[in-house]
Amino acid sequence: MNYFTLISSLILLAFVRPAHASVSFDPADSPPLRFAAAEIERAAKDTKQPVPDVTISMMTGAPQSYRIERNGAQMRVIGGDTIGAMYGGLDIAEAIRMGTLDSLQDSDHTPHIERRGIKFNIPLDVRTPSYSDNCTSAQANIPEMWSLDFWHELLDRMARDRFNVLTLWSLHPFPSIVKVPEYPKVALDDVWRTTADLVKPFNSFTTIGTSVLQPWMLENPEIVKRITIDEKIAFWREVMDCAHDRGIEVYWFTWNVFTNGTGGQYGITDDLDNATTRDYFRASVRETVLTYSRLAGIGITAGENMKESSGATGKEEWLWATYGEGIRDALKAQPDRQFRLIHRLHQTGLSPILKQWNAYPGPFEFSYKYAVAHMYASKAPTFIKEVLPEITPKHRTWLTVRNDDLYSFRWGDPEFAREFINNMPGPDKLAGFYMGPDGYIWGRDFLSRDAVDTDGRRQLVWDRQWFSFNLWGRLSYEPTLPDAHFQRLLGARHPSVASDKLFAASQASSRIIPQVTRFNWGSIDVHWYPEANLSHPTQYKGFYTVRHFMEGKTMPGENVLSISEWREKRSAGKTITAQTPPEVVTALESDANTTLKLVEELRPQADTSDKELALTLGDYEAQAWLGRYYAAKIRAAIELAEFNASAIAAAQTSALKHLEAALGHWRQYAAAYDRQYAS
Question: What is the CATH number of domain 116-481?
Fold first, then answer.
C-alpha cells in the first residue's frame, strides 16, 4: 500500500457514516466542500439517482490538485487543498449527470494552468463606466452588478467550470466602491444608468475610452438602486467572500488616467502633472486595498488616456506614484498580506516598467494581449513572440484572451480550445490568463429574444454559452480531457438526439468564424465583428464590402494568403504552401454544408420540450448560413480581382453571380439570427 493510499484510508476511517449512502466532508465548516457536497446531492436528485457514498477530505498536496479513489460503491476525493477537494467533488457530480459514475476510475488531477480567469468589463454605474458601457447590454446589466443573486450564480458556474480568477475592469471604479477620507465627497451613493440614446456615444466612439461617458449621458438619469457607499462596500465584501468560498481570486483592473465619477471636485483632472490627482489616486488605491481584505490584486494600464508631452510626468513614474505607493501605504498596515500587481504591457514596455517598479513589495507580473481582440481565430497566435524572450520566472505574464468574435452564438470545438491552450507559454513564463469581450457584457442575457427563466429573470450569458465556458475552463485545468468527454456532456444535456451528430454539428459550425477571421483580419477594437461582417461605421470600414475582402490582409503568422498575395505568387509561378483563398472558400463551404446537413437530421429527433436544444440548433444553422455567405463573398472577391487585372468579362459576370448568391445566404442568415436575437 503506498503512502497516499494509506493516509486516505485513515482519513476514511475518521468519518462516522450513517447507514445509508451519503456525502461526507471534512472539515465540516469548509464552504468549498459544502458546495461540492451540495452539487453531488443536487445532481443525484436531478437525475433521480440515489446519492452515492462519497467522502471528501484533504491532505497536504499541490494547490488545486485532487485524487479520486473508489472501492466498490465507495468513492473518496482527497484534495491537495480545499479547492482541489471541491474540484474532485464537482467531478463526481458531473459524472452523475453524464451517467458515467459507474465507470469512474482512480485518477489524479493537477491544474495545467495555475490561474484561469474571466475578463469582465463591469458596468457599475453610468458615472463610473467601464470601456464597454456605451452598449445596450452594459446599461441593461447595471442593476445586476448590484445583485447578490447574480454574483452567486456567476461564481458557482465559474467554479463548476474550473475558473478561479475574476477580473473586474473599469475605467475608474473608486467612487463606486470605496470611501477616501481625504476626498469624502467623491464617494457615490446610489446606482445610476443613462436614459440617453446609445447610438450617439457609439458613433462618437474613440479607442482611448474618453467617449464612454459624456455630459449629456448624465441628463435625466435613472436611479436603479438606492444604496449608500457604506452599503456598497458591504456588498462588494460579500461578493469577494463568496468568490473566496468558490476558490476564486478577485482583481480590479483599471485604465488610466480617468476620473469619471469625481465630478471635478477638489480640482481632480486627468492631467498627469496635477498633484491633486496623483494624491487622490494614491489615497484611493490605499483605501481599496485596506477596505477589501479578500482582494487579490490590482491590474493597471499605462493608457488609454495618459497624455505624455514635453515636460509631462512619465507614465510609469505616475503609475508608481499612485498605484505603487498606494499599495505600499496599505501594506504598511498589513505587512503580512500578499497583494499582486499585474501591469499590462499595453502602450508601454518591459524596460520602463521594470526600472520604475523594482521596489514593489509583492508578486509583480505582466499582462499581454495574446490574440489582440480575437481568440476565435488562430490556435497559436504569434504576437507574443516579440516579448516572450524577456519574460522571466520572476515576473511572469498573464494573457488577455479577448473575445470580440462571438457575442451571440453558442460555440463548441474542443479540438480548437485544447490546441489554443496547449500552445500558450509554459509555467515558467505564464502566470495565468483571463478571457472576455469588449463591447459586450457577460452578465444577464439581454440579447436573446427568449432568455427569461421560469422565475422571471433573464438567464446568464454563461447559461446560453455554457458549452464554450465549460470547454475553456475544463481544458485549461486539464487539457488531456478527450473529445469523448465533451460529446457525452453535450449528449447528457440533450438526450433526445444523437450525441455524435450534435457534437459534430457543434464542431463544424464552430470552425467557421475562426476560419474567416484568419482570412479577413481586423486586429483591434471594432475593426472586425464577424457575426455581422462589420467594423465601426465612422472609425473604420463599416460594413465589409467585396472590395474590402479583395484588398484585405490575413492574420499575421497564420500561413494564410490574401487574395493579392495569392495572385502575386501564382503569377510569378512560385510554389505555394500556405492556405489559398480558394482553399479558404472550400473549408467554409464544407463546414457550412456539414452543419446544415446535421441540423436537418437532428431537428426531427429533438424533444419539443427541449427549448435550449432548439436554440442551439438555430445557432448552428445561423453560423452555417454565415459561412456560406463569406464563402460566396470571397469567391466574388477572387473573381473581381481577376477582372480588375485582366478586364475579362467572364470574371466580372462570375463575380456578380457569386455576389447574388452571397445576398441570398445573407438573407437566410439574417432570418436565422433574427429568430433568436435582437438586432
Answer: 3.20.20
